[in-house]
Amino acid sequence: EIIWLLFLIPLYWMIGYLIFKWAEKITRVIGYGGY
Q1: What is the pLDDT of residue 35?
Q2: Distance CA 19, CA 13 (A)
Q3: For residue 13, what pLDDT is reported?
Q4: Which positions, given as ranges, span the membrane (predicted)?
Q5: Rounded Cα distance, 3 and 8, in Å
């Protein structure tokens, strides 16, 4: 189980980071009116 934790923690961190960057891009596109 500890091995699973060590495997899942970086995976969840990477997914969260990708979602954050994607949301940031979407917010930037909306903020600049499509650019």
Answers
A1: 52
A2: 10
A3: 95
A4: 6-23
A5: 9
User: One-letter amino acid identity for 11?
Assistant: L
Q: Where are the alpha helices (DSSP H) in the chain?
A: 2-31
Phi first, then psi: give them for residue 18, nearest 5 degrees: -65, -40
**The predicted structure's pLDDT at residue 32:** 75
Total domain count, the chain: 1
> What domain range is 2 assigned to?
1-35
Average pLDDT per run of 10 along the chain, which is 35 residues long?
A: 90 96 88 65
